[in-house]
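Quick check before the chapter quiz. The format below is the same one you will see on the exam, so make sure you can read both the input and the output lines.
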Amino acid sequence: MKYARWIPVVLLGCGGVAAAQSSNITLYGDVDEYMNYMHSSSGKSLVALEDGAYLRSRLGLRGIEDLGEGYRVKFQLELGLFGTSGAAADTTRMFDRQAWVGYATPVGEFRIGRQNTAIFYRGDYIDFTSRTLGSIVNAFGVPSRYDNDLSFTSTRAAGLLFEAHYALSGTAGNAGSQGIYQAALDYLIGPFRIGYAGIRAKPPAGAAQSRQEKYDDLYANYDYGAGKIYLTYIRTNNSTSSAVSNNAAAIVGNVGGLLAGTNPDINRIYDIAQISGDYRITQQLRVGALWGRIKDTSGAGHDANGGVLGSYYDLSKRTMLYGLYDTLRNKNNGGFRPAGSAGLSPNFSLPADVNGRTINGVQLGILHRF
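Here is the expected output.
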């Protein structure tokens, strides 16, 4: 019977899993709303009520069934919301953020379905904003989740944790191509953490652009007691233009997540470097600062730099107030815009207000978790 517990790794829910000891289902979510003022060096300003500076407003269900002896079946269904209007973040699907079922064992956890990427999960390790509004890494863009994803995350042993994903293409005849691969390592020893998370997306055979999409993230942080110091370096080619700006979209998006192999921007490599730190003034009040830069290694001038000063005040275990002052300075052909956990809506929508412009902003908001 000992080895029968491994049957659900392949056949989740089949075989000897009927004798569950306990189970529970949790309804959870958050609402994150903020006032946003931004000014572009073009002379245009924007004042708006926005959703999701720190956490995208969301609603979710998660459940755990304890099978005993360290084995559990788990699931998570999560959808994004616009707290400003009550509308769904993605009108084409119900659970746009996560929809997976998993099987946890003493050596690690297997999951299948729509899942967050390994890089997305490491937001808390990258900078003091948890890689949200004000983060230069976030302004560039972070691959967040993919469909049809198979994953394994190990338990931590001797400080080391390993994670791997493979997202199938879901296209007939493409079982072995156009998949998306992920690998990550995280090492925690005392106050130090160092790690790597990477993504590879393959184009179809015979594609006009044969280069793979790559996203490599190296990070480190140090907990000095009253706060943390963070460093991160990213090398990627996952940025392309839109009707609004020169750097407004990902070549491999988060819906479907396939690399078509037709976009020549895949040949433009970016280096992103960022340093940040925070300090806890009191048990409730934390302040921090960040600076980073985006370098277009092709020499075409799609560069930017910027930073943020931020403060976060915990009214309670569930409610937080925050205030930010941020700047994003596009060089020459740089076309980056600020982004939070949710994309800004409204945002600057004319190329003349974005490309080559400096965008400064002030945000005041409240986040409530339930």
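If your answer matched, good. The longest strand covers residues 22-40.
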